[in-house]
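User: Fold this; tokens only.

Assistant: Input:
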Amino acid sequence: MPFTLAVCSEMVYLDEPHLDRVKRIHDGGFAVEIWDWRTKDAHALAATGARFTSMTGYVSGDLTTQDGAEALLSSAEESIGFARAIGSPALNLHGTGLGKGGLPVRPVEVVTGDMWLTALRTLERVAELGERHGVTFVIENLNTEVDHPGTPFARAADTLALVRAVGSPRLRMNLDLYHAQIGEGNLIDLVRRAAPYLGEVQVADVPGRCEPGTGEVRWRAVAEALADSGYEGVVALEAFASGAGLSGSDSALRAFRDAFTV
């Protein structure tokens, strides 16, 4: 199996305390991803023995404004200490901070040329930060049609363009295929184009944002395209379980493993 399979602990085993979710995912043979580190205890997470592959890499700021860029860089540097404490090599970014319900803290209707230049310069500084500290930042595409309206640089085409322009191994793309299917489609071609710039891949089926096999995507074909492209990194289930209770989450993890064992 060419991929490291990980599971987002924020979206499965939701009846359990967070640490118990981490342990269940680890015991199932998967690596673990987390979101906002400010609500968590690094020592307790590390003590679970789990392998952590990704976490949110900022707590405020955006890529579209000068003051937002400074806030993003400051909070990205603050996040590195937590990443080191749990051994997470990747820190995830978005075009702007996300608030309640996944809505952008600073929504943008039209992304201007000046905003693109600000984003490029900011991400160059983010890559330099990663180089100094030996970590990799990944920027995630989102969909604006269903989950995150008003988020700048949301499409996979946008995040890919920014990562290519920066041209640093310390800034990669987190290709979220759930968001890409909603916003752009043509996933196999997208995987092939993005493969040289990938730092992570996330999956959930469409519609519903549940595990592979519950929606319209032919995940085996996507997995084979990823493998054929030479990608050998993290593929993470960032999805809700379609079934209820512990058994529902167990089934979701099994379906995920089956889809990405190629």
